[in-house]
Amino acid sequence: MISHASRRMFPSSACRMMSTSSFIASELTISPTSSPKEKLPKEELSFGDSFSDHMMEIDWTKEGGWGKPRISEYANLELSPASTGLHYGIQCFEGMKCYSTAEGGLRLFRPDRNMARLNSSMSRLAMPSFDGGELTSLLKEFCKVEESWVPQGAGYSLYLRPTAIGTHPFLGVDVSAHVKLFVIASPVGPYYPQGFKPVSLYADSVNKRAWPGGVGGFKLGGNYGPTIEPAKEAMAMGYNQVLWMWGDNDEVTECGAMNLFFVLEEDGKKILQTAPLDRGDILPGVTRQSIIDLAEGWEGVEVREEFPRMGDIKKAADEGRLLEAFGSGTAAVVSPIERIHYEGSDIDIDAGMGSDSITKRAWDDLNAIYYGEVNGPEGWGVDI
Ligand SMILES: *Cc1c(COP(=O)(O)O)cnc(C)c1O
């Protein structure tokens, strides 16, 4: 333990790095359900509305630290109505998938990235840290228990939702003295069962998702609830999702709950442009980073991590240099964009998924790794 005096001398992140305690995967206990649920035919799965037989839980208290991880029947939580998580948004989450590979195995994709992000979200909410390798081991055990829930075939997977909430019954705005980390799983089908369906975006000049110095770079539940009403308004106007902007120059940040990429033509090259992470208002997507990492090896493509400005995007479109636009995230992988409403008019984009399309290439290359056709760079495809 570090003393109170030294605690004050360090920025809080340094403090957190000095904490070494974590739950331990080898202490896992498994209580299998005695009443397994009926599974839906995989064609009837819709995103996030049915859940597997089990859940994993790990509790933490200020006095006792992390408890032992356990897997037991999926069930409602018992919570005090005074729980901090229900009052002050002391909640954060992750989204990742377990894939059934062509060879009949199970695979995770870059789980270390999700573990690092969950630790970073939790520490932003003054929740305890944990060892990412231990949680990855536990997720592997959980996926093995739920193996029969991992639907097979292209586009299918078991979506995993690690979540941390404050459970301390206390109405003070303070560090939550009790925390629960849990994982639930939902079998999901292809995001585009009928083939790609490009989306349209409404560039919202009024509502902001995140801002410099804010918490947009963390996966905190509190970032998402307030986006629903603006999204509803965009939908009422005939658009699928909101394009979020920031600042006087209408910098493009993200769309919906996805990172956003543009493909622009410049001097005979293709520029793949997306917002940078260093300002803290962009969610560091695993899919985003993976597309950047892959594209760095693509001939004729230059990756540019700089805020796109909507005015420049409109100008590029007018000059015929806006080739593609797409959102990226674990749920949809890539989401081609065919239209953006900006300042009173629509920018149309050819969202074709032709053979020279960057969107298609990102889709193909990522899926090949997800489903074990290739291994991809070291550490990406993690077999269970
Ligand atoms: C989760 C999320 C993403 C995508 O992250 P992935 O790790 O690629 O799934 C992008 N933007 C926001 C706002 C998100 O919440």
UniProtKB/TrEMBL annotation:
Keywords: Amino-acid biosynthesis, Aminotransferase, Branched-chain amino acid biosynthesis, Pyridoxal phosphate, Transferase. The keyword Amino-acid biosynthesis applies. It comes from the Eukaryota. It catalyses: L-valine + 2-oxoglutarate = 3-methyl-2-oxobutanoate + L-glutamate; L-isoleucine + 2-oxoglutarate = (S)-3-methyl-2-oxopentanoate + L-glutamate; L-leucine + 2-oxoglutarate = 4-methyl-2-oxopentanoate + L-glutamate. The keyword Transferase applies. The modification N6-(pyridoxal phosphate)lysine is found at K219. Its cofactor is pyridoxal 5'-phosphate. GO terms for biological process: amino acid biosynthetic process; branched-chain amino acid biosynthetic process. GO terms for molecular function: branched-chain-amino-acid transaminase activity. Its EC number is 2.6.1.42. Gene3D superfamilies: 3.30.470.10, D-amino Acid Aminotransferase, subunit A, domain 2. PROSITE patterns: AA_TRANSFER_CLASS_4. Belongs to the class-IV pyridoxal-phosphate-dependent aminotransferase family. This is Branched-chain-amino-acid aminotransferase.
